[in-house]
Amino acid sequence: xxxxxxxxxxxxxxxxxxxxxxxxxxxxxxxxxxxxxxxxxxxxxxxxxxxxxxxxxxxxxxxxxxxxxxxxxxxxxxxxxxxxxxxxxxxxxxxxxxxxxxxxxxxxxxxxxxxxxxxxxxxxxxxxxxxxxxxxxxxxxxxxxxxxxxxxxxxxxxxxxxxxxxxxxxxxxxxxxxxxxxxxxxxxxxxxxxxxxxxxxxxxxxxxxxxxxxxxxxxxxxxxxxxxxxxxxxxxx
Length: 237
Prior knowledge:
Elements lengths: L3 H15 L6 E5 L5 H9 L4 E5 L6 H7 L5 E4 L2 E2 L4 E8 L16 E9 L10 E4 L5 H6 L10 E7 L10 H10 L2 E9 L3 E8 L3 H7 L2 H22 L4
Parallel strand pairs: 1-2, 1-7, 2-3, 4-6, 7-8
Antiparallel strand pairs: 5-6, 8-10, 9-10
Helix pairs in contact: 1-2
């Protein structure tokens, strides 16, 4: 599998093909150790990266990693329902902790504070989201601000590892209903992928800009992932 730094480089390249100006504000949702936040800050040095990480056990590591970078750490969970929630800190798989209950992973629980993203006086230009199944509720918490986001990189899943976890088709439907379209994938494997969504109004620009070989590759990936979902659901192609 490619490193996340490679994924970030692809994401940054897609953005820079469309926009000459750098983004002002980037949200890293589910920052874990903030290494993705550092990668985003390096790719867009003029931007302020806001890193959101709910797991308090991760915060010391995050604070060490963001030194000398233009990153602000928010030690809080994000969701459409503010208040407090149970957070499931997984003990045997790095990066698998979630607001959703794991089906198999051993874990312990922590009560964490939760905010809606639209409660902040911030408008993100870019979003990098990896929340282990809680991405859609987090984005719903942006309210009307979601429509002003220029590009979103989001982890999608083809197999449920948590109770009530949305899968790829749920994520695709959410973005379609909010006038976004799937642009491409930065990587995928058997159970997960990173999908890039853009406002539907930008579709024509990217169709004209992207080299033919990238468009063909993207269409192949879409077809492959669609077939994988159908196989998983036990449907005939």
